[in-house]
UniProtKB/TrEMBL annotation, chain A:
Keywords on record: Cell membrane, Membrane, Transmembrane, Transmembrane helix, Transport
Origin organism lineage: Bacteria, Pseudomonadati, Pseudomonadota, Alphaproteobacteria, Rhodobacterales
Domain ABC transmembrane type-1: 95-300
Pfam families referenced in this protein's UniProt entry, alphabetically: BPD_transp_1, BPD_transp_1_N
Membrane topology qualifier: Multi-pass membrane protein
Protein name: ABC transporter permease
Superkingdom of source: Bacteria
UniProtKB/TrEMBL annotation, chain B:
Protein name, UniProt field: ABC transporter ATP-binding protein
Gene Ontology terms for molecular function: ATP binding
Membrane-topology descriptor: Peripheral membrane protein
Species the sequence originates in: Arenibacterium halophilum
UniProt-annotated location(s): Cell inner membrane
Taxonomic lineage from the root: Bacteria, Pseudomonadati, Pseudomonadota, Alphaproteobacteria, Rhodobacterales
Matching SUPFAM superfamilies: P-loop containing nucleoside triphosphate hydrolases
Residue span, ABC transporter domain: 4-249, 268-518
Entry-linked PROSITE patterns: ABC_TRANSPORTER_1, ABC_TRANSPORTER_2
PANTHER family attached to this UniProt entry: D,D-DIPEPTIDE TRANSPORT ATP-BINDING PROTEIN DDPF-RELATED (PTHR43776:SF7), TRANSPORT ATP-BINDING PROTEIN (PTHR43776)
Length: 315, 536
């Protein structure tokens, strides 16, 4: 298990190094001059020169790369060209919204998907299964911003249980923060839950056909006992894969939902930075997201090994 | 005392009858074997006794265990009986255990689910049962996972689970079919010992008459969902009142007559062939280890000769077969066909490769289900420089199909329209169509019922007469290899430990491994002797 974890960790570090090189090359090197891109075509030559100096573009490329990576390792992501504040502070502020929102949505989606998927698999082909499958079909098909608008309409405008948007900040208390994130988290969670429930159902149906399920029944386990004791854990492998992918998506892909609910999240930051051609912010946020995705994959790999002893012994 | 009595059991699914009026009994301490070919309903009989029939299966009649009719019991009571009063062992040990739970957990679960003992005691009992089935604590602690065990060891775990609560009745559905002969002999011995020790009744399902003859007190012969003959094993085998029993016995003991092989002239030469598999690195910078699957094997196959290759799983016979076909790179030695090397570098040479064909074990998996038979059997044409076209191609297809006992009209059909035996004929037609110099049969008859197997063996003998066939027949089934080959190679742990004329090797094996293989293989009893002993 330790050997397996170390191997996965090594592969994580290599992936990060490769990703940083690729991002650096794409954004800073090819094609053209970052300073010219940031300032647009009407830039004055002297502003361009001073920006080049500020960005450190006058040193060799490899030195720029090392400065960039070295800075990030120490928590220095540079200074935003448009906002004139340290990028690290901006990201930290946005993460306070995006990370809890992603975790909240993921928790909700798992809480909905697991029972729904297990229930549907246990009643395969019967009414309950059809109902769950129909609902998940809707959940996959309907875009999450539509859910978001309907939720606002119902819970914020008609029932007035929640605010229609905005985020008060965590200094107003945990409850106020969670309260503000509830509607966006539900809107994000519903489509994810639909996908996850379908994956859970089909994984479990595959497992139900396995020989060891019949062995379990021959021991005297009821259908339900066999399903819970021998089925669910075996079905977790594909489910974990999807959960990992979904978390990565939720972290940065919630831009539309952030827009609908006026949340100061990472997605909006990226959007604004790209619109303003603030390459320093874009570069840092992209690197951060890559870091998050790779870390989540690492955690998923570790979770695989916890679930499946065959992976543990394969070193 | 009658422990189990199945009375007039009929099964149907969606009005399609599966079993008609099946009756049989098992006494305490008795071994009853249900035998028959696929589709005879023997497995369905077993599953109905433990109440694990597929959904929507309708059962009529009665299944009495200790006088209690199980068909009339609700599911809750059946759960209480399963694992407790009735245990079951299945065919496929590799997949019968949950891969993510330890063997100790899985054995103890039988005890815990019936609340027969508190957890501590249940684990102690699990340990005791595992010891009893031949998995001692030093090598097989309760914390082992199934993937760390071999097939035979896993089957022992399944048996331990089934007997943990000392059930009165044990059902074993083809428990040794997936195992090697020596492992099979050990498992059968274990089952026999358990029956004697605990006074259990054993209902054993098997297609193998030789196993039945060795093991069972009584025998039930089934065909198409009906019992055709039943009685004490020796009586039934001595007299065989029903023609189907006779046919089954004859097919199991089927011998073919091969035409004499032409004078020796080497065709395939395998010299000092070595195949290493790289093992995963154990240390980051240490060189990776190797597993040598084939350790410098040499043999010669003469033109027109029928050569057998036998050995247990993992002995390297499949690796060697793939290497001959050029599907596997080799790390040493040479393989030449007709003087030409099969490989150039690590890729097979087309001009040599087209002189050989192969027939695999699985008649269901080795065809593309979306292609018609004509396309399937002409696949080897892609090895030719100028494949026949038009009427020449049609003639080749017709000839190949007629050769294997099918009709030219079958060319337009899809593979699902054929039975297992017919599919294997199609596989042989595919191998024959380019008139190769060498055919490899890789467990080509192992998945077939005995009567179909006998027909395919006859077909091979006929083809040997019609064409000068040279083949390498790879199999774990000694009785088949004995009849269909002139010479045999015995392989163990990547080496050929014995070779010689087939009859000579079988009647007086020299190497201790060959002896143990032959001793372990169950044999059909001599009918003449039985008849003399038990006259009508």
């Amino acid at each position: 298990m330790l050997r397996y974890s170390l191997k996965r960790l090594l592969s994580l570090l290599i992936s990060l190094a490769v990703a940083s090189v690729v991002i650096f090359l794409v954004i800073e090197v090819a094609p053209g001059d970052p300073a010219a891109i940031m300032l647009g075509i009407n830039a004055q030559p002297d502003t361009l020169a001073s920006l080049r100096a500020e960005l450190g573009l006058d040193v060799p490329k490899w030195e720029r790369y090392l400065n960039w990576v070295g800075g990030m390792v120490q928590g220095d992501f540079g200074t935003s060209y448009t906002y004139r504040t340290p990028v690290a502070d901006m990201i930290a502020a946005r993460m306070q919204v995006s990370l809890p929102l992603a975790l909240y949505a993921l928790t909700l989606s798992t809480l909905i998907a697991f029972p729904a998927g297990i229930y549907a698999a246990a009643r395969r082909g019967r009414g309950g299964d059809m109902a769950v499958m129909g609902a998940t079909q809707l959940g996959v098909a309907v875009p999450n911003f539509w859910f978001a608008m309907m939720l606002v309409l119902l819970f914020a405008i008609n029932l007035r249980w929640f605010g229609a948007g905005g985020f008060p900040g965590w200094d107003k208390g945990l409850w106020a923060g969670l309260h503000a994130l509830t509607l966006p988290a539900i809107a994000l969670a519903l489509p994810q839950a639909a996908i996850l429930a379908r994956v859970m159902r089909s994984a479990l149906i595959d497992i139900l056909g396995e020989d060891f399920m019949r062995t379990a029944r021959a021991k005297g386990l009821t259908r339900r006992q066999a399903l819970w004791r021998h089925g669910v854990r075996n079905a977790l492998i594909p489910v974990l894969t999807i959960i990992g992918l979904q978390f990565s998506f939720l972290l940065a892909g919630s831009i539309i939902i952030e827009q609908v609910f006026y949340l100061p999240g990472l997605g909006r930051l990226v959007f604004q930075a790209i619109s303003a051609r603030d390459l320093i912010v874009v570069e840092s946020v992209v690197m951060l997201l890559v870091f998050a995705v790779i870390t989540v994959n690492f955690l998923v790999d570790i979770a695989y090994a916890l679930v499946d002893p065959r992976l543990r012994s394969r070193t | 005392m009658t422990l189990l009595s199945v009375e007039n059991l009929s099964l149907a699914i969606h009005k399609t009858p599966i079993l008609h009026g099946v009756s049989l009994t098992v006494d305490a301490g008795e071994i009853v074997a249900v035998t028959g070919e696929s589709g005879s309903g023997k497995s369905m009989t077993a599953l109905s006794v433990i109440g694990l029939l597929p959904d929507r299966m309708e059962a009529k009649g009665a299944i009495r265990l200790d006088g209690q009719d199980m068909l009339a019991l609700p599911e809750r009571n059946l759960c209480a009986l399963r694992g407790n009063a009735v245990g079951m062992v299945f065919q496929e040990p590799m997949t019968a255990l949950n891969p993510v739970r330890t063997i100790g957990d899985q054995v103890a679960e039988t005890i815990l689910v019936h609340k027969a003992m508190p957890p501590e005691q249940a684990r102690a009992r699990a340990r005791e049962v595992l010891d009893r089935v031949g998995l001692p604590e030093e090598r097989f602690p309760l914390t082992r996972y199934p993937h760390e065990l071999s097939g035979g060891q896993r089957q022992r775990v399944v048996i331990a689970m089934a007997i943990a609560l000392r059930p009165k009745l044990l059902i074993a559905d083809e428990p040794t079919t997936a195992l090697d002969v020596t492992t099979q002999a050990q498992i059968l011995e274990l089952l026999k010992g358990l029956v004697a020790e605990f006074g259990m009744g054993l209902l054993m399902i098997t297609h193998d008459l030789a196993v039945v003859a060795d093991l069972a007190d009584r025998i039930v012969v089934m065909r198409h969902g009906e019992v055709v003959e039943t009685g004490a094993t020796r009586q039934v085998l001595a007299h065989m009142r029903h023609p189907y029993t006779r046919a089954l016995f004859a097919a199991s003991a089927h011998r073919v007559i091969l035409p004499p092989a032409p004078p020796p002239e080497p065709l395939l030469r395998v010299e000092n062939v070595v195949r290493d598999y790289r093992l995963p690195r154990t240390k980051l910078f240490a060189p990776p280890g190797h597993f040598r699957a084939v350790k410098g094997v040499s043999f010669t196959l003469n033109r027109g000769e029928r050569l057998g290759l036998v050995g247990e799983s993992g002995c390297g016979k499949s690796t060697l077969t793939r290497a001959i076909l050029g599907l596997e790179p080799i790390q040493g030695g040479t393989i030449t066909l007709d003087g030409d090397p099969v490989l150039s570098g690590n890729t097979p040479r087309r001009e040599v490769r087209r002189k050989m064909q192969v027939v695999f074990q699985d008649p269901f998996g080795s065809f593309n289900p979306r292609h018609r038979v004509d396309r399937l059997i002409t696949e080897p044409f892609h090895l030719l420089d100028t494949p026949p076209t038009g009427s020449e191609r049609t003639r080749a297809i017709d000839k190949a199909l007629t050769d294997v006992g099918l009709s030219p009209a079958d060319a337009g059909k899809f593979i699902h329209e054929f039975s297992g035996g017919q599919r294997q004929r199609i596989a042989i037609a595919r191998a024959l169509i380019t008139r190769p110099q060498l055919i490899l049969f890789d467990e080509a008859v192992s998945a077939l019922d005995v009567s179909v197997r006998a027909q395919i063996l006859d077909l091979l003998a006929d083809l040997c007469k019609a064409y000068v066939l040279t083949y390498l027949f790879i199999s774990h089934d000694l009785s088949v290899v004995r009849t269909i080959t002139d010479r045999v190679l015995v392989m163990k742990s990547g080496e050929i430990v014995e070779q010689g004329e087939t009859e000579a090797v079988f009647s007086s094996p020299q190497h201790p491994y060959t002896q143990s293989l032959i001793d372990a293989a169950p044999v059909l009893p001599d009918r003449e002797a039985l008849l003399a002993e038990l006259p009508a």
